[in-house]
Design a protein that fits this description.
single chain; 2 domains
């Protein structure tokens, strides 16, 4: 088998598959990620249904942030290795852009709400 055929088929000269045995994600990692995601979904759900905590919004936000980290680590397999450098940069860029768009939108809506309140428009026009 030529080197080109080995690269295409993934079979090396001794029958191994591409030389990457044991480097991919395992079933244990997927199950761990799934269980963590279910737990991080069930906690806020139970608190809202049971009316256990008054300030449930903070718990929901914390669990949502933790769940995003779980998804990135266990399902997207993003880690601190050198091979993942460009993927980390793309994720960071996306987070910054979403933050700018979300923050700017909230700022604009707040400013519009403040400047266009009922009653305030009448006072500004006639004085």
């Amino acid at each position: 088998m030529s080197a080109a055929n080995e690269a295409v088929t993934g079979h090396g000269p001794h029958g191994e598959h591409g030389g990457h045995a044991g480097h991919g994600p395992t079933l244990k990692q997927y199950v761990t990620g799934f269980v963590l995601a279910v737990i991080l979904t069930a906690i806020p759900f139970a608190l809202v249904i049971g009316h256990v905590v008054q300030d449930v919004l903070l718990v929901i936000v914390v669990c949502a942030a933790a769940q995003m980290i779980v998804h990135v680590v266990y399902f997207l397999h993003l880690n601190r290795s050198e091979e993942q450098r460009w993927n980390r940069m793309a994720l960071l860029y996306a987070v910054i852009m979403v933050g700018i768009i979300l923050g700017g939108s909230l700022w604009i809506m707040y400013s519009l709400n403040y400047n266009m309140m009922p009653g305030m428009m009448h006072a500004k026009v006639w004085k």
